[in-house]
Amino acid sequence: MDGVIVPEHALIAHKLTRLRDKNTSSVLFRNLAREITQILISEATRDLTTIADERETPLSPFTGDKLAAKIGIVPILRAGLGMSDVAHEMLPMARILHIGLFRDEETLEPVYYYDKLPTPPNVDLAFVVDPMLATGGSAIAAIDRLKETGISDIRFIGLIAAPEGVSALLEAHPDVKIWLASIDERLNEVGYILPGLGDAGDRIMDT
Ligand code: PRP
Ligand code: URA
Predict the structure, then answer these.
(1) Which of 75, 81, 161, 206 has the fewest CB atoms within 10 Å of its CB?
(2) Which residue has the least CA distance to atom 2 on ligand 2?
């Protein structure tokens, strides 16, 4: 699928297997989610534009590089928090913009409960992080909101997606590139991803 990158990576495959396992503790789950996120962020930042950065080593001047864009990391609460810390460690200059959304369990529609985006956001490029892309409703709503604030360059980083969610996100926001650890088989009748990993927020927060 154009616009969707699922890196073939032995470490991702190994860690994702343990992440899915129902016997994995919350402590291990959080660590695995962080480690997979680290690899995905590394992939998703591979082509970022850099500009010349004039510096000096102890021996000589040199022209290095610095990232050109003002970067934002946007965790979709709650589960996105399990990915944003490590993303911030890798991109310490980034601003963190929280968006609070939960899925109504009956309608599967996203419901806003927290939105304190700064205006203007002072961000050129936003990485939206959320472990699960199921129907796609939450990611689409979060990206709609970011675009309203004027951010046009947006990348989505998730751990597991359903094909239905990937198609919905690509249709709603064809300009948004997506990085995922896995695209699974399908959604079940109550909107959970199969085989998936269950409820990511509950497993991260141990609730
Ligand atoms: C989960 C997940 C996504 C959303 C995905 O959050 O973290 O935000 O569901 O589903 P969708 O693609 O069908 O919108 P949830 O609503 O369970 O909230 P939580 O993060 O607080 O657990
Ligand atoms: N949210 C989750 O946490 N898991 C799913 O499988 C779908 C939505």
Answers:
(1) 206
(2) 199
**Ligand 1 center to residue 85 CA distance, Å?**
18
Task: At 135, give phi and psi (nearest 5°).
Answer: -75, -20
pLDDT at 116: 83
pTM over 0.85: yes
Alpha helices in 4-135 (DSSP H): 10-20, 26-44, 81-90
What is the DSSP secondary structure assignment for residue 41, as one 8-state letter?
A: H
pLDDT of residue 1: 82
How remote is the CA of residue 129 from the centroid of ligand 2, in Å? 14
CATH of residue 44's domain is 3.40.50.2020
Strand partners, 126: 72, 154
Q: Vertex 154, ends 192 and 5: CA angle to 5°?
A: 60
User: What is the C-alpha to C-alpha distance for residues 172 and 42, in angstroms, rounded to an integer?
Assistant: 25
Q: Give the pairing of strands 71-77 and 99-103.
A: parallel
Q: Which residues of the chain have pLDDT under 70?
A: none
Alpha helices (H) along 93-177: 137-148, 163-172
Where in the sequence is the domain holding 35, given as residue range(s)?
4-205
Total domains in the chain come to: 1
Query: Residues with beta carbon inside 6 Å of ligand 1?
Result: 76, 78-79, 101-103, 108, 110, 130-139, 165, 191, 199-201
